[in-house]
């Protein structure tokens, strides 16, 4: 059904023959909130924590971000930490960070030893995607190149193209989130996921957002998606359901 490409981070394996890793977002606006939130979410035992740093009020201050990342690491122990700055255009918060500031911050985080994975949007337009990716390779930080379409579900062909292009740039994993407007859109996303899992050499993460797309967050792994986003404390995108609900289903869908 799928390729055997796996990415291992700490004790989590991201691979199409496994259950989807459960990733829970943290949206605290400062270090104190973030730590409290992390403790609460950790009690629900997700595989991955995603620090959605676009919510962080001191994002322009590299030192504050590094300190918060370090504090987070000491609280979360061996749990995988994914760092994401989601742009407004792709469903994130508005930030005052310039592209150059963002690159400097990501560069510092990669060598900080605090984060395990980094989400970079395909559309980020960094002057040097390649340089960041090379540095991440050297430090063992896995790069997810992502793309969100909050308007629609593009055709299967277009979606596959996007994933393949991001694989070619050097992503360790590739991610797509789309907005469905019909059951057909949902089917098409799942079908595309299966094709991508078979034809790409890196693991894929996909989801359809909103109410119509909830099923993709539950059964996406049966079509080859290696990660699902679930609520520990607060949702970070439409259609996410609680960690407990995903875990309950995975008991029945996985060996
Ligand atoms: O890329 C994603 C996926 C997501 O948008 C979702 O739909 O669950 C949630 C975001 O926090 C994350 O960065």
UniProtKB/TrEMBL annotation:
HAMAP family: AroD (MF_00214). 3-dehydroquinate binds at residues 50-52, 86, 217, 236, 240. Gene3D superfamilies: Aldolase class I (3.20.20.70). Keywords: Amino-acid biosynthesis, Aromatic amino acid biosynthesis, Lyase, Schiff base. InterPro entries: Aldolase_TIM, DHquinase_I, Type-I_3-dehydroquinase. GO terms for molecular function: 3-dehydroquinate dehydratase activity. Its EC number is 4.2.1.10. The active site is at 148 (proton donor/acceptor), 175 (schiff-base intermediate with substrate). It catalyses: 3-dehydroquinate = 3-dehydroshikimate + H2O. Belongs to the type-I 3-dehydroquinase family. Homodimer. It comes from Alkalicoccobacillus murimartini. CDD domains: DHQase_I. The keyword RNA-binding does not apply. Pathway: Metabolic intermediate biosynthesis; chorismate biosynthesis; chorismate from D-erythrose 4-phosphate and phosphoenolpyruvate: step 3/7. It holds the Pfam family DHquinase_I. It comes from the Bacteria. Involved in the third step of the chorismate pathway, which leads to the biosynthesis of aromatic amino acids. Catalyzes the cis-dehydration of 3-dehydroquinate (DHQ) and introduces the first double bond of the aromatic ring to yield 3-dehydroshikimate. SUPFAM superfamilies: Aldolase. This is 3-dehydroquinate dehydratase.
């Amino acid at each position: 059904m799928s390729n055997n490409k796996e990415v291992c981070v700490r004790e989590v394996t991201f691979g199409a023959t496994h259950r989807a890793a459960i990733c829970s977002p943290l949206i605290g606006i400062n270090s104190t909130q973030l730590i409290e939130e992390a403790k609460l979410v950790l009690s629900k035992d997700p595989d991955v924590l995603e620090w959605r740093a676009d919510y962080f009020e001191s994002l322009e201050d590299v030192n504050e971000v590094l300190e918060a990342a370090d504090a987070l690491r000491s609280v979360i122990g061996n749990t995988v930490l994914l760092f994401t700055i989601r742009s407004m255009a792709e469903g994130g918060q508005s930030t005052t960070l310039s592209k150059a500031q963002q690159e400097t911050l990501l560069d510092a985080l990669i060598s900080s030893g605090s984060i395990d994975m980094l989400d970079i949007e395909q559309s980020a337009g960094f002057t040097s995607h390649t340089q960041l990716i090379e540095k991440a390779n050297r430090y063992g930080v896995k790069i997810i190149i992502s793309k969100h379409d909050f308007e629609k579900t593009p055709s299967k062909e277009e979606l596959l193209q996007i994933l393949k292009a991001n694989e070619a740039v050097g992503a360790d994993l590739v991610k797509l989130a789309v907005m469905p407007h019909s059951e057909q859109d949902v089917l098409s996303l799942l079908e595309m996921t299966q094709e991508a899992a078979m034809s790409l050499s890196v693991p894929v993460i996909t989801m359809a957002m909103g109410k119509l797309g909830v099923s993709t967050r539950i059964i996406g792994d049966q079509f080859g998606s290696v990660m699902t986003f679930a609520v520990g404390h607060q949702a970070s995108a439409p259609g996410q359901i609680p960690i407990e609900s995903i875990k309950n289903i995975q008991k029945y869908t996985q060996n």
